[in-house]
Amino acid sequence: MRSTSKPSAIDESRPRIDYGSGDPACVVRVLGYWNLRGLAGAPSTFRSEVEAGASRCVDRVWDLTELRALDTAGAYLLWEAWGQRLPETVKLKPEHESAFTRWQQRPLPPIDRIHRPSVAFFRRAIGFLVRVGLHCLELVVLLGQLVLDLLHLLRHPGDTPWREISATIHETGGRALGITALVGFLIGVVVSYLSSLQLRTFGAHIYIINILGLSIIRELGPLLAAILVAGRSGSAMTARIGVMRVTQELDAIAAMGISPSLRLILPKVLALIVSLPLLVVWTDLIALVGGAVSAKLELGISYHQFFSRLPNAVPVSNLLIGLLKGVVFGLSIALIACHFGLRIQPNTESLGDETTNSVVAAITLVILIDAVFAILFRGVGLE
Amino acid sequence: MTTAPVIKIEGVWTSFGDQLVHRDISLGLGQGEILGLVGASGCGKTVLMREMIGLQTPSRGRVELLGQDLAGADVRIQQELRNRCGVLFQGGALFSALTVYDNIAFTLRELRVLDESLIERLVAMKLSMVGLDVGSAMLMPAELSGGMVKRAALARSLIMEPEVLFLDEPTSGLDPVLCEDFISLLRELHRELGFTIVLITHDLDTLSDLCTRVGVLADHRLVSFGSLDDALRCDHPFAVEFFHGRRAQRIFHRLS
Fold first, then answer.
1. A95 CB contacts (<8 Å, ≥6 apart)?
2. Does A103 touch chain B (CB under 8 A)?
């Protein structure tokens, strides 16, 4: 609508060339805004039109004094159209001369834009395996460094970073109580509800306690807590260490003669080794409560009956296995998080990539370790 | 060309919570001038510059950029105004995930009308204007030295051929030789492209070599705004310390 009401204003600002009549003696006038903003409004065929038109008329008299604006981009279009030279007779405003001299004086070599060639699938697969191997090697090195740090602490107990350890326990344990409770309760309700539907058809109501006790204490509790912590605290640890690398804080610590592994990595590992088993107990407890609620509603098993039969139904070795899993999961999540944090390069892309890798690797490893536990302890606590 | 001021600030007050940063600051800057803002660390130089660009709104007062009131303008007009400005941030603020080439070409591609060959020529031109060779175009920002980061960031801020260029401590972190290079580069570009420059600096050499106007911020106020001589005559304790301290005397003595 506006363009119909004020056509002249639009026309005057548009970059264009007035070739006049077909007469070769006629002056060619360049009009409008020949800068990036003006060119941005021009149609997409504009460049080819200019080149075709101007190259035919390069011998005529060019008048650029009526130009509204000219910048490097606009000058380049004309310059290219004229065949990389100025026409023999051209009228220029003095302030526009520099735009052309810039192109005239600087022979610019083309920028060699390297496109990384795509790698064949086979090569990529081998590369992936090699990377996994290197990760494992680096993890072992990190673990060895931690053992050395622990030995150092045994000899110099005063160096123990208590404050960092306690802060990390609070961060990874205390502040995760809410989310683990919520998830644990819901899973307890769901498992209990689904099992009770099956058990009712067999009339085996009372076995809900065995099923829930065993599956939650031995399997679900540790796994849930570990996966939540890997997503919550593992990613935070990776990002924190990574940003410290970006802002050179890691170098600053090393330059002060303080071992970064002792002050940054060891506290995180020790704290998770402490806090994850505690979280496992908490998650177990809340999930069992959820299960008991659902069992009462579905099967009419009273809370007293549920919790008094639980110790008989589930041998205590299951609880110990669950706690042991918590310790191992805590160790591996913290190690993985720190390992990927130390790999972060000082750019935004790498920060995102390594944090993702850290969470994915930690969760995968947790499930792998869980499988190993299932095989190792297949004869323990299952009657 | 109109003689209307490129930047006009009227009665600007800024405070963050209880903390007062600016008290009643007014200034006007004409086309093609180079304003150097000096002041003690933490006296609100960067905040004032962010208000000029419209990244931050003052608590009271008016800021006009290229004849438009920033606070009253709608989002599209603000966007257009920012397209006419180039900003060089203190740390360069190059996008670390993109190569130097892609960093500089970024705004051009955002226009969505230029073809890639034209973009390539324009980027090559800007690289050569700031004194970088084409070999560095494909490097990542993390692979550049401090001086190259500044140059690449300058090329990025110049790519739209801005009418106003804002520079936040352009020479900090550069060695004296690079610093001098950078200043003469800026002077050359200013002569060639004729933009208006606002720059924050602690460097007396930069002030005396480059700036046509000097603004001194101290005690939340603009205690001096005018030529370098005006600033030298200013009797505010900070200005006296800054322009007549031992360091300053060395430099100005050498000049005279």
1. B194
2. yes
Q: What is the pLDDT of residues A316-371, one digit of tens each?
A: 999 999 999 999 999 999 999 999 999 998 777 888 999 999 999 999 999 999 99
**DSSP secondary structure of A233-266:** IIHHHHHHHHHHHHTTHHHHHHHTT--HIIIIIH
Complete DSSP assignment for A210-241: HHHHHIIIIIIHHHHHHHHHIIIIIHHHHHHH
Handedness of CA A98, A104, A105, A107 (dihedral sign): positive
Q: Domain residue spans in chain B? A: 1-84+164-170+196-256
What percentage of chain B has pLDDT greater than the value 70?
A: 96
- Taking only the tens place, the pLDDT of each residue in B109-133 is 887 777 788 888 888 888 888 888 8
Residue A145 CB-density burial (10 A; 0-12 exposed, 13-18 middle, 19+ buried): middle
Q: Which residues of A touch B194 (CB under 8 A)?
A: 95
How, if at all, do strands B85-88 and B19-29 pair? Answer: unpaired
Which among A39, A108, A349 is the nearest to B124, CB-wise? A108
d(CA B111, CA B108): 5
The neighbour count for residue B227, using CB atoms within 10 Å, is 13
Average pLDDT, whole number, for chain A?
86
Give CATH for domain B1-84+164-170+196-256: 3.40.50.300
Please spell the DSSP secondary structure of A304-320, one letter per residue.
HHHHHHHHHHS-HHHHH
Give chain A positions within 8 Å (CB) of B97: 347-349
The verdict on ipTM greater than 0.85 is: no
If DSSP codes are grouped into helix, strand and coil, which group holds residue A105?
helix
Mean pLDDT of chain B: 83
pTM: 0.71
pLDDT at residue number A12: 67
Please judge whether A108 and B95 are an interchain contact, meaning their C-beta atoms are less than 8 angstroms apart.
no
Q: How confident is the model at residue A77 (pLDDT cuts 50, 70, 90)?
A: confident
B192·A111 Cβ contact <8 A? no
Q: Is the distance from CB of A90 to CB of A101 less than 8 angstroms?
A: no
A112 touches B at CB < 8 Å: yes
- First-to-final CA distance of chain B: 35
Mention every residue, 6+ apart, whose C-beta is less than 8 A from residue B76.
Answer: none
Q: Please say if the pLDDT value at position A223 is more than 50.
A: yes
Distance CA B50, CA B200 (A): 11
The pair phi, psi for residue B221, each rounded to 5°, is: -120, 165
How far does CA B103 lie from the centroid of its chain? 19
Whether A36 sits inside 8 A of B111 (CB atoms) is yes
